[in-house]
Design a protein that fits this description.
Blueprint: E1 4-10, E2 14-20, H1 24-32, E3 40-44, E4 47-51, H2 55-74, E5 80-81, E6 86-89, E7 94-97, E8 100-103, H3 107-110, E9 126-130, H4 140-146, E10 150-154, E11 159-164, E12 170-173, H5 184-191, H6 199-214
Parallel strand pairs: 9-10
Antiparallel strand pairs: 1-2, 2-4, 3-4, 3-7, 5-8, 6-7, 8-9, 10-11, 11-12
Helix pairs in contact: 2-6
Length: 225
């Protein structure tokens, strides 16, 4: 079969190219090319999507990751941040980059690993997925096939948490698995402030709220101030 391509224009500033009939070896070669580091690849059994994320996409992903890092710093929870590490398995013929991903429950198992091999090492415990423009390849089934236990998904308007069930599907959850005290609304209360204050101020506000809510006996309301 010959490879074919479809160019998809998905504003704001997120052009996507969808390629068909692409062998796994070609996907890996493209993914490994240093010139392609700024491109997000999604591969699903011969279909390959190339996407250039917008500034808003990157902003949301960065903020969500910094909230995770602030939360774990204040509550002294060990994590390993792996950014947009490629998650792929040749046996499944599937691969993608999370916007951000973290080892939490399995952090100790990969702490000393300079090169994580997902054929032998565990998948990240948490993936963060920003989806402000619809992908031409559904990414949730790829995460499910790879067996990533928890996903946070932001569609540009709302943040939702999902857990991988025994049926191999993701189901919406009210509290994070990795951080049981945390709900999507708690993070949304701060994400909604991103245009009101600078990022440093926002993170300081979040840090103060975490300390006052979860580390202080004087405040047990759990409601952001």
């Amino acid at each position: 079969m010959n490879a074919t391509a479809t160019v998809l224009h998905a504003p704001p500033m997120e052009d996507r190219i969808l390629l068909h009939n692409i062998p796994w070896e070609v996907y890996e070669a493209l993914r490994g090319c240093p010139r392609n580091r700024s491109i997000r690849f999604t591969y699903d059994r011969g279909r390959l999507e190339l996407m250039s994320p917008s500034a808003r996409h990157e902003r949301l992903g960065s903020l969500a990751a910094r909230f995770v890092q602030t939360w774990t710093l204040e509550l002294n929870i060990p994590i390993l941040s792996c950014g947009s590490m490629t998650l792929k398995r040749a046996i499944l013929q599937r691969g993608l980059e999370s916007d951000k991903c973290f080892y939490i429950q399995n952090e100790a198992l990969v702490r000393e690993r300079e090169d994580i091999d997902l054929d032998v090492d565990p998948l990240p415990d948490l993936g963060i997925e920003i989806d402000i423009t619809a992908s031409s390849i559904e990414r949730f089934p790829i995460y499910a096939a790879l067996r990533v236990p928890e996903l946070w998904h932001h569609d540009g308007e709302t943040l939702r948490f999902y857990a991988l069930g025994d049926d191999g599907q993701y189901h919406e959850i009210a509290h994070s698995i990795a951080f049981p005290q945390l709900t999507p609304q708690m993070l949304m209360d701060f994400l909604d402030r991103q245009y009101e204050v600078d990022e440093t101020t926002l993170l300081r506000q979040f840090s103060q709220w975490v300390r006052e809510t979860f580390l202080s006996d004087a405040n047990s309301s759990g409601v952001p101030g």
